[in-house]
Amino acid sequence: MLRDEYETVIGLEVHAELSTKTKIFCSCPTSFGAAPNTHVCPICMAMPGTLPVLNEKVVEYAVKAGLATECTISQDSKNDRKNYFYPDLPKAYQISQYDKPLCEHGKIEIEPHTGKKTIGITRIHIEEDAGKLNHDDFGRGSLVDLNRAGVPLIEIVSEPDLRSSEEVDLYLRKLKSILEYIEVSDCKMQEGSLRADVNVSVRKKGESKLGTRTEMKNMNSFRSITRAIEYEIDRQIDVIENGGKVEQETLRWDEVSGKTFSMRDKEDAQDYRYFPDPDLVAIKLSDEYIENIRKTLPELPESRKQRYLTEYGLSEKDANIITSSKYLSDLFEEASKICKNPKAVNNWIISDISRILNETEMDPVEIPFDSKQLAKLVMLIDKGTISSSIAKKVLVEMFEHPRDPEDIIDEKGWVQISDEGAIKEVVSKVLANNPQSIADYKAGKEKALGFLVGQAMKETRGKANPQMLNKMFKEELK
Ligand code: ADP
Ligand code: ZN
Ligand code: MG
C-alpha cells in the first residue's frame, strides 16, 4: 500500500463563536436566526466615522479558553487589521490579532488507538466574524446579511501535530467539549458556531521537512472532516506519485461528490497588509485579572472522568463517553441524583441514548428531554411499572414526541402487567395452546420454558412482568 510510505500531517484552525450577549465592538445582539439585517448598527455596518469599543467579555472568554487549554496568557496584547476585500466584510478589513495574540503555547491531550498524545496549541486570538452572503438559487444575485458581522470569535490554531483523521476527530471533540464546559461558546456546529479550517499535507516517511499543505475552509461536521481528510491524503499522494507537485491552495470540500475543488491560491500573511488597529487601545491584563478568571474555571472533563471512576464506579470507557459532552455529563449526574441509580443512568446514556444520537447525528445538547424525565424512566423500571423492553420504546417516544415517560405509558397503555390474576390467565392460555412444550419441559428441555415465556410476552404485547411469568410457569409445570 502506497499510503504506508507516507506520513500525513494536519493542523487545525478552529473558529468558535463566543456566546457573549453582544457583538465584539458594538452592542448589537449576537443571537442566531434573526431576520436578515435586524441585528445591525452603524458600527457593524462599517459606516464612515464610527469607532469600535472592545467588549470586555470577549477578552474574558478568550482568556478562559486559554487557561482551560493550558496556554500562557499574554498580558500585553493588541488588535490588528487584516485587510481583504469580500462582499460580506463591509469595512474591507477584519479586526483580528496578528503578532500579539491573547493566548499562546497551550495543549490538548487526546487518546487515539496508538496511545495518549499531546497536541500543541500555537495560539488563541480574538477576532470578529464576517457577515453572510445568501446566494440566489437561480443565479440572479446574492444578498448580504450583516447580522453575523462583528459576532466575536476565538480562533484556536493547532501545531501541525495531528497525524490522521482519527486524531483530528478526537482533538476536535475534546476541544469542543472543553469550550462547552467553560461555557464560552454553544459550539453548535450546524449553526456554524464551531467550524474548522483543515490544513493537510503528506510527506515520505522519515522526511523531516513538512510537505506543501492545502487548506479546506469552514468545515462544520465531523463526518465531512474525516471524509475530506481521507480524500485529500489520497489525492496528494496521487499527485506526488505521478511526478507532480502539491499546490498550496484553498480547497472547497463538496459533500455530494465526495471530492475537493480548488477555490483560490492560498494567501500569505503579506497579502493581508496587517497593521495595528489605530482605533483600539492595547489590551493590558493584570495578574489579578487573569487569576480571577482562573478562579471561575469549572471542573474540566478530565477531572470529572477521574471522579466518575471512583465516585460512581464507571468503567474508563463509559466515563470517557459521558464526560465527552458537558451536557451528557450533567444529564448523568442530575438524573443519578434523582433516581439514585447511577448504574442504570449510565447504561441508558452509553447504549440507547448514544445509539439514537449517532443514528440521527444529533448533538447531545439537542436531546429533547431533561434529567428529571430520564430519572423517571429509570424509576419506572425500578418500581416494576414497566419492563426494560417497554422502556426502550418509551425512550424512543421521548426523543420523537418529548413528554413525561408516565404520560407516554398512560397514553400507549404500556403499563406492565404485574397483577397475579392477569398473569395466571395468560399462563393458563399459553399452556393450553402448547402441549408439546409442556412435554418437552417435563422431559428435561429447559429451553421450552423460555419459549413459553416468549409466547406469553407476545400475547401481552411485551407488557407482562417477565419475572412473574417465569415463576408462575415453573410452578404450573411442577
Ligand atoms: P494561515 O492558514 O492563516 O496562513 P497559520 O500559519 O496560522 O495560518 O495556520 C496554519 C495552520 O496550518 C496551523 O494549524 C498549522 O499547524 C497548519 N500547518 C502549517 N503547515 C502545515 C503543513 N505543512 N501541513 C499541515 N498543516 C500545516
Ligand atoms: Zn452593531
Ligand atoms: Mg488558514
Q: What features would you highlight for this structure?
A:
single chain; 478 residues; alpha+beta; Arc Repressor Mutant, subunit A; nine-stranded mixed β-sheet; three-stranded antiparallel β-sheet; 15 helices; 40% helix; elongated; binds adenosine-5'-diphosphate; binds zinc ion; binds magnesium ion
Short characterization:
Helices cover 40% and strands 19% of the residues. The chain is an alpha+beta fold.
Explain this structure to me?
This protein is 40% helix and 19% strand. It has 478 residues and is an alpha+beta fold. Helix 3 (222-241) links the parallel strand 12 and strand 13 (249-254). Helix 14 packs across helix 15 (466-477). The longest helix has 20 residues, at 222-241. The protein starts with 5 loop residues before the first strand and ends with a helix. The protein binds adenosine-5'-diphosphate, zinc ion and magnesium ion.
Q: Share of helix among residues?
A: 25-40%
Tally of strands: 16
How many discrete structural domains? 3
Tally of separate helices: 15
Distinct compounds present? adenosine-5'-diphosphate, zinc ion, magnesium ion
Percent of sequence in beta strands? 15-25%
| Class inferred from helices and paired strands | alpha+beta
Ends distance: 65 Å
**Major sheet, described briefly?**
9 strands, mixed
Using only C-alpha atoms, the radius of gyration works out to 29 Å
Overall 3D form: elongated
Across the major sheet, the strand order is: 2-6-7-10-1-11-12-13-14
